[in-house]
User: Which sequence fits this backbone?
């Protein structure tokens, strides 16, 4: 059976909203977008790059994150992640989108997130899936016990406001598998649920 890995940037107080740009996600009046930009370094790039290249992985998106990534990454040049993202197989969970989707190698998973992802895993058991951001989708999958690994990029920053990764989700104890600290103080920590049955 394939595994699902959540790759998420968070602050020390668990905020995951709008790490990339000021206008990335301004829902509920969030004004602190772009908070992760000043912490990027070569260590972070290497660790995330190695993780993504470790084996072939498909990407799993919610509608908003898919649209945001598609609006940004295909236009980036001289960035190693652009080619990886363009070539990757992408699955998008949505109740409002319709096919064909605009980004190459994209497939729509229509309907309820948990049901759609379970059907995908049953049909394609060889797939490893990576969820990038996609807070609403991620919380649905976490609530159903479907996330096998969390790769958290924990930034040394407290915002006090914004959508938090684990709000409303009780995961219990997680086991730390690996951690790396970057030159800017970001802790890249890999956690797995301690329960034997995480799916």
Assistant:
């Amino acid at each position: 059976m394939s595994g699902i890995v959540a790759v998420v940037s968070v602050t020390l107080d668990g905020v995951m909203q709008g790490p990339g740009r000021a206008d990335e996600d301004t829902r509920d009046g969030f004004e602190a977008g772009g908070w992760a930009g000043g912490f990027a370094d070569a260590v972070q790039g290497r660790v995330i790059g190695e993780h993504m290249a470790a084996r072939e992985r498909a990407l799993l998106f919610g509608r908003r994150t898919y649209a945001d990534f598609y609006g940004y990454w295909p236009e980036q040049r001289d960035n190693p992640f652009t080619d990886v993202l363009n070539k990757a197989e992408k699955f998008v969970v949505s109740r409002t989108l319709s096919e064909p989707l605009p980004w190459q190698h994209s497939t729509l998973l229509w309907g309820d997130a948990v049901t759609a992802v379970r059907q995908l895993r049953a049909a394609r058991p060889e797939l490893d899936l990576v969820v990038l951001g996609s807070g609403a989708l991620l919380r649905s999958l976490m609530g159903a016990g479907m996330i096998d690994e969390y790769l958290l990029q924990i930034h040394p920053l407290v915002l006090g406001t914004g959508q938090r990764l684990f709000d409303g989700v009780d995961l219990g104890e997680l086991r730390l598998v690996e951690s790396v600290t970057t030159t800017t103080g970001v802790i890249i920590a890999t956690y797995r649920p301690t329960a034997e049955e995480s799916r």
Q: What stands out?
A: The chain has a mean pLDDT of 91.
